[in-house]
Amino acid sequence: MDINHSVAIITGASSGMGAATARHLHKLGAKVALLDINGEGIEVLAKDLRGIAIACDVSSAKDASKAMQQVKETLGVPQICVNCAGIAPAKRIVGREGPMELESFMHVINVNLVGTFNIMRLAAAEMSVAEPLNDNGERGVIINTASVAAFEGQIGQAAYSASKGGVVAMGLPAAREFARFGIRVMTIAPGLVETPMMRALPEDIQASLAESVPFPQRLAKASEYARLAQHIIENPMLNGSVIRLDGAIRLAPS
């Protein structure tokens, strides 16, 4: 699918992989809608990219519906949707103070899994009634973000791994369902990525984490996620699969 002149929704766009993807797609000619619960955090970036900033809790049906309507009215029907919004708190199932609060588990599931599904369902509904974009009959591409923790969750990552495992699991059935509309669904599972949260760690810890990656022995760059998103959008045969962006890392138990 051609990215130039397309309308792209990016969630979690205030920083990290979401912001890098927004910048990259804009550079390729896309009109970008930046969604983030931190509305102020995306205002400056949206202005720089001549896009729109929408404060949105992705786990809220009301927020997401209002955001989708604003995208349609301002930029047009979306052809690209990249879901990067997510949280990654670490908490043991049974810690020193007893069992994890159920609300803590549910919050992670709601943001990472329900939030991804929420935006995907609304974007797909809009794409499904649009005119085909090319001879393949394509109408849109949805890229969801999982994590290598979906496959090798570490101690303290039960909620996070469950949420990202759900993102992985729903990718194929979604791709099969949306095939009749010409909508592709792909999932990226990043490993250790150089994000603001990662850069806030002490340098020795960052170095230790980088050394755990077989090759290249460093943290992934957010721009590498963005370039992979570009390739997925442009390659029509990528559909219903998960791509690990991890330098061959396999997470240890802790």
* Low confidence ranges: none
Number of strands: 11
The helicity comes to: 40-55%
Shape: globular
What's the pLDDT, averaged over the residues? 96
The percent range for strand residues is: 15-25%
Q: How are the strands of the largest sheet arranged? A: 3-2-1-4-7-8-11
The CATH superfamily is identified as NAD(P)-binding Rossmann-like Domain
> First CA to last CA: what distance?
41 Å
What is the top-level CATH class?
A: Alpha Beta
Order of helices and strands: EHEHEHEEEHEHEEHHEHE
CATH topology: Rossmann fold
Biggest β-sheet, characterized?
A: 7 strands, parallel
Named CATH architecture: 3-Layer(aba) Sandwich
Rounded to an integer, what's the Rg over CA atoms? Answer: 18 Å
Describe this protein's structure.
The structure is a single chain. This protein is α/β, with parallel strands linked by helices. It has one domain (7-193, 221-244): Rossmann fold (3-Layer(aba) Sandwich), CATH 3.40.50.720. The chain has eight helices and eleven strands. Strands 3-2-1-4-7-8-11 form a seven-stranded parallel sheet, with helices on both faces. The protein has a two-stranded antiparallel ribbon with strand order 5-6. Helix 3 packs parallel to helix 4 (102-128). The longest helix has 27 residues, at 102-128. The protein is globular, with a radius of gyration of 18 Å.
